Amino acid sequence: MSPSRLYTASVTPPLPLSSFNVSSNFCTEENVSECILYINQELLSLCFPPIFQNSDSISDLDAVVALNNIYDLLQLHRRAVGMMEELEVEQLKSSSDLHYQHLTNSRLKDQLELSKKENMRLHERERQLETNVKTLQNCLKDTKEEVQRLQGIIASRATQYNHDIKRREREHNRVKERLNQLLIAKKENKQGMEVLNYIGRSDGRRCLWKTGKTESRHEGDMYKTLLNEFDNRQRELMVENTELKKVLQQVKREMVGVLNSKKMSQEEEKQSNDMDQTNSDEDELLKRHHEMSCDHAREKLTNSIRQQWRKLKHHVERLDSQASMVQDGDSEEVISKQLHEEEMERLKLEIQQCKEFIQTQQQLLQQQLNTPCDEETAAVLNDSYMLEEKERLKEEWKVFEEQRKNFEMERRNFTEAAIRLGHERKCFEDDRAMWIKHQFLNTTFADQMKPQSRMADEFSKHSGREEKLISISGKVSKSHL
Amino acid sequence: MNFSEVFKQSNQLCKVSPDGKYLATCVQYRLVVRDFSSLQIVHLYTCLDQVMHMEWSSDSLFILCAMYKRGLVQVWSLEQPDWHCKIDEGSIGLVSSRWSPDGRHILNTTEFSLRVTVWSLCTKAVSYIKYPKACQKGVDFSADGRYMALAERRECKDYISVFVCDDWHLLRHFESETQDLSGLEWSPNGCVLAVWDSCLEYKILLYSLDGRLLSSYSAYEWSLGIKSVAWSPSSQFLAVGSYDEKVRILNHITWKKITEFEHPATIMNTKAVVFKEVEKRPVVGSEDLSIHQLTVDNSLFSTQSKYEITQLPAQVPVIKPDPERANPKIGISALAFSADNRFLATKNDNMPQSLWVWDMQRLSLLAVLEQTAPVRCFVWDPRRPRLALCTGNTKVYLWSPAGCVSVNVPVEGSFQVQSLFWHCSGSSLVLLSKEHICLCYVEAEEEK
């Protein structure tokens, strides 16, 4: 129940006292008996003696009882009112207490919030101070280390200085001793050079006098040397510069080429076209200003290269991301990473296999070369193989030799025979000629007819013999061949 | 690889003539000149005292022998053995003596660096230069021999004088911006003079030939600074090694640092190759113990060694220097460029057994050689990219881009190689032990 409601409830008087004076609507002249009955019942219920006995007469009203009852009721009423008042007061008190408690509660809550915040703040501050302390401690440690290091340095410097001082002091003492020696020395050794004869200068020229001209010449020589050096260096740097510029140009051109060869979106193409245009312009410009190498051209070159590089980088990044997402057989230019890796693995395996193969080959080769572990057995083995061959060859050779000898002999025989034959033939020819001559001379004209046939016979005999001889010589010559 | 026989020398004085034809050695007070190809003695000279310094003249016709104790310098002629020249510095003393580039003047520095006397062998003229500075490298001649730079110290300030070697005319004299000049060096093209400060301040100044300050470079303050400096043969780079174990490379156009080479104790670089020298104990099998083997082959008594490639990451042995001592053994003490400008060899003093080789084209570490003893000396071949080094034992080591090899010097007794240098043709090495020399003829090809 809200306190205001109780309060209003308690404000309203329980019963308007004034209403008792005026007859209320409860009892009228008509319903007296009912009222009396009702009141009786009520009184009975409240443990009061009844004012009306259960009789037949209606107006048998016990006045004393009624008055007592009324008095009791009044007392009750008063007590009740008093109690109610007390209760009301108590209620007021408690509600105000409650209110007060609520107020204090909220106040305390606020206070609690505030103090919590304060607490957090203090915690935070504490943490900060702790970190501060830590950093300061670290600083302190560092500073201590620094101090130690510097102390070490100071110590080493001090030892160095001491060492130096001692050395100088020793030298100083030596000088003093030497001075003393010189002071008391009787004979002073003069400095001097003895030489058999003076020799010529190494370059063959004569020594020159020291004049202002030589001095200026020396100065001139010195500056010439320096200038030469500067010139050389500048030349080298120029050469290097042009080389680098060429390389940059080439790189740029290649980048442009690479970027253009890929399928790009229209706007990129357009951009690249524009870039190409400007690039070609720049190329022209650079070629013209090549020797002058003005800053502007240089800057343009480097800027354009940077731009191209950025584009290339983007492109490559895009390709990379594409490759990681793309499946097989998407585009012939874009190979998926997986395929690429597989390819690499395969190639690596192949290389490994080839290497192993080569190694085994080498090993085998080595073995081949090294197998004769013992020289002698190897030699023996070699020899044994050779021996067979040798033997075989020897035999064949022998056979050939024999045949050759035979042939030689036969040839000799045949030549002898041929010679003999030649001789014989010659003799025979001579004989024949003689015989014919004789015959001819001997036979007269008379005997011409007769001995002609005989001559013919003789002639035919001789010719037959001759034929035989010829055939033999022919055979001989044939076999001789 | 062939080795010659062993000859005596004293004071590590053994020099090849600039034309490569002769080899001069000093044995106590004698000067022995040999023909380089046949090693026959060509001339023999006797000096008045033990020779402390010996130098060939640039035209290979004269040799100077300096005897510091007696303050004497004697000059000998190869063409005329009976020609003699003696320079006596008298009571003023002698601390150093050197030829001028034309081979006709001798520069003597007196004791306490009081002055430099220029003696002429052509004329009677004598020049004096006052207030020379006694420092690590106070005098340098340009490569073409035309100019000499000399560091001077007057009234607690450093000055640099540039002389024309022709007639010793003072060309330029200017104040140097160093606190305490420690050294100066001409660039190989003769146009730039690098001047560096002592180790207490990291400062390197670059002066032009005419005395203008071109640039100044300082990597850091307060800690110990520059320890060594080297020009590349093309004058393109200037390598500065410092006590913080780093080498900084400056370029000749802007004189700014283009890179720095670090020498960490753990090598992580995957492109570098780490060669570690491993000694093999000789295993004596019963079949080897023949008298023949023992007398001919020294292998029983000297350990063989070979190089092994170590897996990366590799640890480099570090020796911590004593912090109490001055000039601590830490930092890059030696730098050398190869003749073709492609490689740089460095040695870090707190990793004394290692030698680092850098590729100048890629500006990165190429190889690290880890020896069994501290590296004593390393020299590049004047013709090829080939590095010879020695560590004081009986071996000489060669590195080339193809690989490394370790060769035992096959000399009876033991020949402890203390230092070495190449012949100007790059075909042979001269090895020096404490009292002997030995020549090593090297082929052009390298085996791995």
Automatic annotation (TrEMBL), chain A:
InterPro entries (alphabetical): Adhesion_Centrosome_assoc (IPR052300), Afadin/alpha-actinin-bd (IPR021622)
Arranged from A to Z, the UniProt key words for this protein are: Cell adhesion, Cell junction, Coiled coil, Cytoplasm, Cytoskeleton
Q: Name one GO cellular component term.
A: ciliary basal body
Name of the featured protein: Afadin- and alpha-actinin-binding protein isoform X2
* Family of this protein: Belongs to the ADIP family.
Which segments cross the bilayer? none
Q: Where is this region: Disordered?
A: 259-281
Domain of life of the native organism: Eukaryota
Keyword match Cytoplasm: yes
**What is the gene name?**
LOC113039922
> Quick check: keyword Coiled coil in the entry?
yes
Which residues lie in Basic and acidic residues bias regions? 264-273
Q: Which residues form a coiled coil?
A: 105-185
GO annotation, biological process: cell adhesion; intraciliary transport involved in cilium assembly
Location in the cell: Cell junction, Adherens junction; Cytoplasm, Cytoskeleton, Microtubule organizing center, Centrosome, Centriolar satellite
Automatic annotation (TrEMBL), chain B:
Source organism superkingdom: Eukaryota
Q: Which SUPFAM superfamilies match?
A: WD40 repeat-like
Note the InterPro entries from the entry: Centrosome-WD_assoc (IPR052778), WD40/YVTN_repeat-like_dom_sf (IPR015943), WD40_repeat_dom_sf (IPR036322), WD40_rpt (IPR001680)
- Pfam families attached to this UniProt entry: WD40
Any one annotated GO CC term = microtubule organizing center
Which SMART domains is this protein grouped with?
WD40
Q: What PANTHER family has UniProt attached to this entry?
A: WD REPEAT PROTEIN 8-RELATED, WD REPEAT-CONTAINING PROTEIN WRAP73
Task: Provide the protein name.
Answer: WD repeat-containing protein WRAP73
Which species? Carassius auratus
Gene for this chain: wrap73
